Amino acid sequence: MNINKLLANMILSVFALSTLVLLSLIYYYIRRVNLIVTPKAIKFKHHPQTLYTDKLRYVQGETIECYVNTDLPSTISVYILKEEKHLVQCYENIPVCRNQNYYHPKNGCSWSKTLTIDTATLESGLYIIGIKTEDQVKESFFHAIALVPKQQKTKLAVFASTNTWLAYNCYGGKSNYLDQQNHTIFKIPFKLMGKVVPAYLPTKRPHLQNPNDVANGHYNYDNVYDSFEFAQHPRREWPLLAFLYQNNLNFELYTDWDLAYNPEILNYDKWIFNNHSEYWSAEMKGMLKKYMEKGGKVIIASGNNLYRDVEFYNEGIKMGNQVSDMEITTKLTGSFFTEDGYLTLASYKIIERNHFAFEGITTTHFGEKSLYSYQGVTGASGIETDKINYHSDGFEIIAVGNNAQGPAHMVFKQTEKGWIFNASSISFANSVLVDENCAKLMLNLLKN
């Protein structure tokens, strides 16, 4: 009798779990074909002044379409981020614009267009568009865009990690890390499988990396040297760009979309990947491989590289595998992210003293300073770090982080016609602005 009861309970449990899985799949399919067009929008602390643009990437000469939500007359300002932020355009007396907080899970917001911004006279670079009301001293909300060149004029291309911007944007209740759109019961089967509910991450929405960004002051673009422990991802890319401007190193800015679909980037002598280049499509990996075979020189001033898979669609990116193929990533970059050492910070120790990257660096250790700080500690090796593995053939470790656990493996590989350098650390890119020896290392790479 007890055995029969046990079997009956097991059958009921299996049936309940199967029903839950089936309902989750049906629910996901409905969301995928967009039968639900107004899911629950994220509720953030009262901040009615927000804006977004129709794209994150514009070519010089294209018109930026700007969509604004404001309860009070406002001013819209456009800045380029150089050594300082420079005002390039200003639009005053923007009238009250109240838009519904409906959010389409695939297409994003559909607010009324407020103004257009002409880019014909603007140079390639990273721009922020800010909004403030008449009673505010400075802007409290910013939206970042990348302006790519209409025609190549330099030999250096820098890639903004725009897929990372999208992956962390939780406006509308959905990022790759936050899900307030799907009911908890429908997330259970995915959690049991160690996965998240597949997500479309559209471009057309204000950038909100954390529901409390505005209240906590995470839109601080006052000074490039300010600490940015919790800053948004576009803000984290500013220090490396400021370093290039500071040293009169001409460059042109591109995006992850360009890395996937713009063959013009193959004509540059050097590429730099900035800060946190985590989310890659198959096309992006193919373009990097092609560039290396062509004899290109690559500087990966980043960590947690090529770690998650995405697909592009017309309105943004769609999440794929949460962990990319380690072999493919390592063969391209020499290392792969692991969680050990997460959030720790430290300097590097030079392993290959005679490497040209360390010319002029007289100390054994370097990279003690960074704009990143965690629990009062700074360093160029840290936050998230990548390490070598059994697929790192042809790469040599030229320096290693001094982190007690999970140090970054700074690696280098000479190819037939070019080379690839990988700092394997998120914190490295910002350190070049404040650490003398990291600056020397970067200049050695850029002048080689």
Key attributes of the depicted protein:
single chain; 448 residues; alpha+beta; Immunoglobulin-like; Rossmann fold; nine-stranded mixed β-sheet; 23% helix
What do these coordinates show?
With 448 residues, the protein is α+β, with helices and mostly antiparallel strands. It has three domains: 1-33; 50-149, Immunoglobulin-like (Sandwich), CATH 2.60.40.1930; 162-447, Class I glutamine amidotransferase (GATase) domain (Rossmann fold, 3-Layer(aba) Sandwich), CATH 3.40.50. Helix content is 23%, strand content 27%. A nine-stranded mixed beta sheet has the order 11-9-12-14-25-24-23-19-20. The chain has a five-stranded mixed beta sheet with strand order 2-8-7-4-5. β4 and β5 form a beta hairpin. α1 crosses α3. The longest helix has 31 residues, at 2-32. It is globular. The model is unreliable at 31-46 (pLDDT under 50).
Q: Give a count of the beta strands, DSSP E runs of length 2 or more.
A: 25
Q: How many helices does DSSP assign?
A: 10
Low-pLDDT parts are: 31-46
The CATH class assignment of the largest domain is Alpha Beta
Strand content: 25-35%
Query: What is the CATH-assigned architecture of the largest domain?
Result: 3-Layer(aba) Sandwich
Strand order of the largest sheet: 11-9-12-14-25-24-23-19-20
Structural class: alpha+beta
Silhouette = globular
Distance between the termini: 80 Å
Largest beta-sheet characterization: 9 strands, mixed
Task: Compute the average pLDDT.
Answer: 88
CATH homology group of the largest domain: Class I glutamine amidotransferase (GATase) domain
Rg is 23 Å
From the 3D structure, determine the CATH topology of the largest domain.
Rossmann fold
